Amino acid sequence: MRLAFKAAALCVVVAMLLLAAGASWKFEQKHRAGAEPAVTAADSAAAELVDAHIRALQPGHLTDVASTDQNTVKPWFDGRTAFSPPVPDLAAQDFPLVGARLDVFEGRTVAALVYGRRKHLISVFLWPDSTQDMEQYAGAMNGYHWISWKHTGLRYCAVSDTNRDDLAALKDLFNR
What we know:
Blueprint lengths: L1 H32 L7 H16 L8 E2 L3 H7 L20 E9 L2 E10 L2 E9 L8 E5 L2 E8 L2 E7 L3 H11 L2
């Protein structure tokens, strides 16, 4: 009986060692292959803004002020943001203004302009940015494209399920 107990205990110890060795090997392979790519600050920010766009698509959340008139939308921001966001009229370029809302990004209130493009909605988030970073960032996640850029002291990020070319065209129109 003692011999059977010792044999069972030895089997358990060998099994545990094999399990530990296998897990260690798997971790090593995963680490070597770079299975977990580094998440950049731009990726993290984009994920937050894509989430905000998706939340806005819920019924009743798209706009705080619904208007196709830039002269209604722009003054609506007075006293609601610490800056005066530009609200270009881009209907002639097939980006009609739908309205605007306030949103929160990284703990601060930002302006969110909503434009249409064919049957798609585009959220253009914007806020003052005093950093020296002039880079443009773009990407896609969860079926949504985004593009972020800086122009005249403001950081912009446009998010939509439309294609990248539409977002690039919208960015160019904002930068005129």
